[in-house]
Design brief:
The complex is a heterodimer of chains A (665) and B (316). Chain A is mainly α. Chain A contains 26 helices and 7 strands. In chain A, the strands form 3 sheets. Chain A has a two-stranded antiparallel ribbon. In chain A, β6 and β7 form a beta hairpin. Classes of the chains: A mainly alpha (665), B mainly alpha (316). Chains A and B meet through α14, α15, α16, β4 and α21 of A and β1, α3, α4, α5 and α9 of B.
Chain lengths: 665, 316
């Protein structure tokens, strides 16, 4: 493309401003539905197909996820032009793909019928595929894109079965028809359909063991697109799980089957722990963040699974409300901090061109805004107070603990295990981000790229500030966010909304359960604690200089008398070494040390070190699957002669068998 | 009026914990010295050390970021904030007027302090700091979930994670409602307390040998008033952990109102519990050798398994 440079830049800016405009409009719409009390908005689309009416319908759940989409989209749209300007090879194509991607995600959340849902779903997959493969044309990216496409379409196939089964019984594609169809389903069929939907959406959401594409594909896209893929696209898949698990497929006259809750809770727990364990051993900044998305999807599913176990039909159950509210709030929180972290990583990558954190370091002085905003995101994602990640994890903990008492028996034990695994996840995440932040931004620069880095331009900082502000606001005054959750939880569970359960004692206090339920409610006030923290820090700061203005001087770091250099800095590999040994059963670490000796074996000229850990799902499950598929394909090839009449015979035989099988009635 | 009294109580308890923190360390040092047939330093030595550090100048690493100066202050603030969540002398049974925090928030704030400390260690850019940070975070992530589980096993019985409510409820039950899970949870907590307070066999607070340091390794680049802040935070964390154990398992003698006799009794009970636990730490420290770092997962695994069994027994 030979477009003049200023024109190109103008077009990219225009595209992103259009996306920003769309995001603001979407956010306004979502807020109107969530707190404006307009009820469900409904819009019929032009009749595209003769057999189905397409429509958009925005109820509370749709509006909430639309809000999640628009929040990160707005930040990405602010951030995008400068990032693409510095970095991209095909900025116009990427801007266009980004627009389609975002519109399709909003379309999935707002779809009022199965057809619109599936079309938008497919558009979302294809547009994000373009973003994955367009950034750098390396073999690795192409392979990541292919894996992504295969996994996404395997998921879509599962979804197609669910939709077609329901549409056939309900004689229509709109969600009301699907609900009516689901109403008459038998128990096992219902569960089978839910499991299929879970596989379909789980493949997109990166639930272990369907996560293998995610850490490969997400980092390959431009960083603001990665932020959208990790922060939002996974949420759109979770929207599907919420929509099907609690709404369309849920039985109207009884509790959700226990097997659903068990499956979701177990999948969530496994995803959370495996995701963060694998994240700890990554040295590619963006891949590390992508693995953390697997972890956070797990945490969201823990809340969702618990809500499924606790809900008893359409009755009011404050604990189920608490669990679902925790899950939804974490969805919003994760979008905010993961978006922020990806944008921060993108800022580093666009200024240094390096993704391997071992070659970074010392950026705190060179890129202060990026550094401190990344730290904010790191504290939030590690579930440390007083930011938003802590709030939703606290609510999840409360729901799990109170759920333990309520459920008892095996389900109670499962909830207890989930609670302890969640605690482990928090500790692992903190260790991982101490490493990621410390090695990337602190210490001395370990490469020329890091040494010459400068701060990113203002629009990129503005995008990060928007999400950083969301992290702080959702952390310090989470009570106000509860009102946003009222709509979706009441639609899915009935009964009281979270603003009556969680923030019953005013917006500044979070309570474990409603005071009306008779249980002694555990209450905390993150606002008060944050104020106290700030106050104590101010007092300590003042006291430190109080006895007398002591002199302060600078000196090199102590390195046992040797000249300090960046080679003394602890690397990410070294930082994660103890965990590699402790969790060796999961990691199966491999390392090879190549020695190049001189004239005698005692004189070592060079030492080469390579180490890697494996993703067990990849080696155990997928390699076997691949082998099996290849073997089958080889077997089939024997009958694939290339003669056209042979193929016609196959088609004919298949047709006859199908007719015999299905036309018996 | 009642508001002011409640806030006054919280401030008094927090102040008491911060002020007593160094004394507990002094007591343990003295006990260790006597067990080694030494005279040992005075009980008040930790206070003198703090005063000395506060008067000293600061030497800061030239490769550290501007944030490095704020880290000791933030670590201290996060640690001291946890003191308002514990029942020390008072445990009113009614709902708190301004609920501040519960056990989860307390452990999360301690995790925040640890996280900031690790960041500070990586900031200076020496190998010792990085090694200390890596080890401390590793031990921390093994200890934290186990401690959560031990707390949960008590919290599930009480139906809340609010430590004041838990203590107040337990104090009214006959024989403190001690059951088998409590024994397991207490054992787990004692194992974990050794790790959280950085004592032998997990860490050795008296050494600065690079191969054995955990917590101290992270502090090498701090000096003067900044180091004083972190050392005070370490003392405070120790007393907070001990008070947490006491509040979970021995909530005896906590005052309801503000009668002088009641408060005097509560104070005596608190000191007795505190120094009993401190004696335990000192005795363990004097009778065991420090474990190799990679043996620690087995030792901490003991705590983990006990805490898990306690939780499982409570649920089933």
């Amino acid at each position: 493309m030979d477009v003049p440079k200023p024109l190109l830049r103008g077009a990219v800016w225009l595209g992103h401003l259009l996306i920003l405009g769309g995001a603001s409009a979407g956010a306004t719409l979502a807020l109107r539905v969530l707190i404006g009390g307009t009820g469900t908005l409904y819009l019929t689309l032009p009749r595209l197909f003769p057999f189905a009416q397409m429509s958009l319908s925005v109820d509370g759940l749709s509006a909430f996820f639309l809000l999640v989409v628009t929040l990160v989209t707005a930040a990405a749209a602010l951030y995008g032009p400068s990032y693409l300007g510095a970095h991209a090879k095909a900025p116009l194509v990427q801007t266009f793909a980004l627009g389609v991607f975002v519109a399709c995600m909003a379309g999935v959340c707002c779809a009022g019928d199965g057809l619109t849902f599936l079309l938008a779903w497919e558009g979302m997959t294809l547009a994000s595929y373009v973003l994955v493969v367009s950034d750098t044309r390396s073999d690795e990216n192409t392979r990541a894109g292919l894996l992504y496409l295969v996994m996404a379409h395997a998921g879509t196939a599962a979804l197609l079965v669910v939709f077609l089964t329901l549409a056939e019984r309900g004689h229509g594609f709109d969600f009301d028809a699907l609900r009516t169809a689901a109403h008459s389903l038998q128990g096992p069929t219902r569960t089978a359909l839910f499991m299929l939907a879970l596989v379909g959406f789980g493949a997109k959401a990166g639930v272990v063991p369907l996560h293998v594409w995610l850490p490969k594909a997400h980092p390959a896209a431009p960083s603001h697109a990665s932020a959208l893929m990790s922060g939002v696209m996974l949420k759109v898949a979770l929207y599907g799980i919420f929509r099907f698990g609690f709404d369309i497929l849920a039985p109207t006259d009884g509790p959700v089957p226990a097997s659903w809750g068990w499956t979701v809770l177990v999948l969530g727990t496994v995803s959370a722990v495996i995701g963060v364990l694998l994240a700890l051993q990554q040295h590619d900044l963006k891949r590390l963040l992508a693995f953390h998305s697997v972890e956070n999807v797990g945490i969201i599913l823990i809340g969702a699974g618990l809500a499924m176990l606790l809900t008893r039909g359409r009755g009011a159950e404050p604990l189920a409300t608490l669990a679902l509210a925790a899950s939804l709030l974490h969805t919003l929180n994760h979008a905010a901090f993961k978006g922020l972290l990806f944008l921060g990583a993108g800022s580093v990558i666009s200024r240094t061109g390096v993704r391997n954190m071992e070659e970074l370091g010392g950026l705190a002085r060179r890129m202060p805004w990026t550094t401190w905003l990344f730290l904010l995101g790191a504290v939030a994602i590690s579930a440390l107070p007083p930011l938003n990640g802590f709030v939703s994890e606290w609510m999840t903990f409360q729901a799990l603990l109170l759920g333990v008492g309520k459920l008892g028996g095996a389900s109670g034990l499962l909830a207890g295990v989930a609670a302890s695994m969640l605690a482990l996840t928090g500790g692992l995440a903190a260790a991982c981000f101490a490493k990621a932040f410390g090695v990337t931004f602190l210490g001395r620069p370990r490469s020329i790229h890091a040494e010459q880095a400068t701060e990113s331009p203002a629009p990129m900082i503005a995008g990060m500030l928007l999400l950083g502000g969301a992290c702080v606001a959702l952390g310090l005054v989470p009570g106000y966010a509860m009102r946003l959750l009222d709509g979706p939880t009441q639609e899915l569970l009935g009964g009281l909304g979270p603003s009556a359960v969680v923030s019953a004692r005013g917006p500044l206090v979070l309570s474990g359960t409603a005071a009306t339920s008779g249980l002694a409610a555990t209450s905390i006030s993150v606002t008060a604690v944050a104020t106290l923290l700030a106050l104590l820090a101010a007092v300590a700061w003042a006291l430190r200089g109080w006895p007398r203005r002591a002199p302060r001087r600078l000196a090199p770091t102590w390195t046992c008398g040797m000249l300090p250099s960046s080679r003394f800095d602890y690397t990410a590999t070294a930082f994660a070494k103890p965990l590699r040994l402790i969790f060796a059963a999961v990691y199966r670490p491999r390392r090879a040390i190549a020695k190049e000796t001189g004239p005698s074996p005692y004189v070592i000229r060079r030492l080469g070190y390579t180490g890697e850990v494996v993703d067990l799902a990849e080696t155990v499950l997928y390699t076997r699957l691949k082998r099996w598929v290849t073997a089958t394909a080889q077997g089939i090839r024997a009958y694939s002669t290339g003669r056209i009449h042979g193929y016609i015979a196959f088609v004919l035989v298949t047709l006859v068998v199908a007719l015999l099988f299905f036309a018996r009635t | 009026m009642e508001d002011a009294a409640a806030i006054g109580n919280v401030v008094a308890q927090a102040g008491l914990l911060v002020l007593l923190g160094p004394l507990v360390t002094g007591f343990i040092q003295k006990l260790k010295a006597r067990l080694q047939c030494r005279q040992g330093a005075s009980l008040w030595q930790p206070y003198r050390d703090l005063a000395k550090l506060l008067r000293k100048g600061t030497v800061q690493s030239d490769s550290a970021s501007p944030f490095f100066r704020a880290i000791p202050v933030l670590v201290l603030a996060a640690t001291v904030t946890t003191t308002v969540m514990l029942p020390v002398l008072w445990a009113p049974s009614g709902p708190a007027l301004l609920p501040l925090g519960d056990a989860i928030l307390l452990l999360a704030l301690l995790a925040l302090a640890r996280f900031l400390c690790a960041i500070g260690a990586l900031d200076a850019g020496g190998a010792f700091g990085g090694m200390g940070a890596s080890r401390e975070m590793t031990v921390g992530l093994l200890v934290e979930p186990a401690m959560m589980m031990a707390v949960f096993s008590v919290a599930v019985a009480g139906g809340t994670t609010d430590l004041v409510h838990l203590a107040a409820r337990r104090a009214t039950l006959p024989a403190l409602s001690w059951q088998a899970p409590d024994l397991l949870a207490l054992f787990a907590m004692l194992v974990l307390a050794l790790a959280e307070t950085g004592r032998i066999p997990v860490d050795n607070p008296d050494t600065h040998l690079e191969l054995t340091m955990l917590h101290e390794g992270m502090l090498l680049e701090h000096s003067g008033p900044g180091l004083a802040c972190i050392v005070l935070a370490t003392h405070t964390k120790q007393i907070v952990i001990l008070t947490l154990v006491a509040a979970l398992f021995f909530p005896l003698g906590l005052a309801e109102g503000s009668a002088p006799v009641e408060i005097a009794l509560a104070g005596a009970a608190f000191l007795a519990k505190l120094f009993a636990l401190a004696t335990f730490l000192g005795l363990v420290e004097s009778s065991y050798a420090k474990l190799r770092f990679f043996r620690l997962p087995q030792f901490l695994g003991l705590g983990l398994v006990c805490a898990f069994l306690a939780l499982a027994l409570r649920i089933l």
